[in-house]
Amino acid sequence: MSDSFKIIKNKNSCWGGFYKPLRPKAEKKVGLRAVLFVSCNSGYLLLKNLANFEALYPEKLNIVGIVTDDPLDPDARISIKKRIWNEFTKEEHRFLFQRIIDTSIGLGIPCYSGAIKTDYFHEIFNAWNPETMLMFCFGQIVDTVTHKFPVMGSYNFHPSDLLNNIGVGSQPFQLTIKNGMKTSNLVIHEVTDVIDRGPIVGISPPVNICLTNGSYPDSILTLDDKITSVGGWMGVELIESIFSNKVAGMTGRVDVIDFEKQIPATIKAILKLPAVNDLSSKYEIPLHPLLCK
After folding, report:
1. What is the pLDDT of residues 150-183, one digit of tens each?
2. Per-domain residue ranges for the chain?
3. Of 129, 138, 130, 183, whose CA–CA distance to 156 is shortest?
4. CB-CB neighbours of 265 under 10 Å
5. Residues 62/29, Cβ–Cβ less than 8 Å
6. Is the pTM for the entire model greater than 0.70?
7. Which residues touch 170 (CB under 8 Å, ≥6 apart)?
8. Strand partners, 189
């Protein structure tokens, strides 16, 4: 057992485990109770931005639980060979997974990495009692009993042009290229029983996915990094919108967020820049204004 957390591993989780901080964050009665289903770089970006948001506005957000993929457990059923995980080395798997765990524990928030369609997880989830759920790069199908639980809605971030039926499923980047697209989008949609088919809540401005010569980068990791770079910004705006609805006494999902209007021209200009082949060159955009206090 670590000096910062204990891990519960048993047959009830099927794989992975339940990581519980030994120094959990103080309980509070304010803030939108949220659970994040996140993994890889894009999920970490969302987690990092929302953790900063909660630190600045503890009265608005209360992250009560985190769920992540476990790419290290051979029994894990997370479509690892089809999804973006397949583009990383085993060493990178370990780093990406551990970074989510370490961040969760550092925030004093429990993190679960096992099967979610089990009574065991349902008990954990119900105990967290979330009002909303956000997913970004998560590898399991979320069952009805889970995504219907949060009264303020459940949302998924997906990196392709779902509005035009492009990139549904576990290989959005490959399908975007197959369709000959020169730009793509990051889409937020409601989680439903049909994968990536829930009502669309918001769409990012177009993201240029081509090199200066009009061809595609050698690695789809470049596209993953670029298209999802706006995910933290959009996540903050989504949480702010959900919280506003809660304060107004409204339940149910947020209807529509006009990100084309909300996202400033400076960020749009960055998203329009050509892609690059250098995997060490990370795409970064300015923080959401609410994080610039």
Report:
1. 999 999 999 999 999 999 999 999 999 999 999 9
2. 5-291
3. 138
4. 8
5. no
6. yes
7. 79, 82, 83, 139
8. 156, 200
- Token code pair at residue 19: 């990581």
Cα(114)–Cα(118) distance, integer angstroms: 9
CA distances from 216 to 31, 164, 176, 246 (A): 43, 20, 11, 43
Band the pLDDT of 214: cuts 50, 70, 90. Answer: very high
Half-sphere exposure of 291 (CA within 13 A, CB side): 19
Is residue 191 within 8 Å of 135, Cβ to Cβ?
yes
Are 23 and 50 in contact by the 8 Å Cβ rule? The answer is no
Orientation angle between helical segments 40-56 and 231-247, nearest 10 degrees: 40
Q: Are 59 and 151 in contact (CB under 8 A)?
A: no
Mean per-residue pLDDT, 43-60:
98
Fold of 5-291: Rossmann fold (3.40.50)
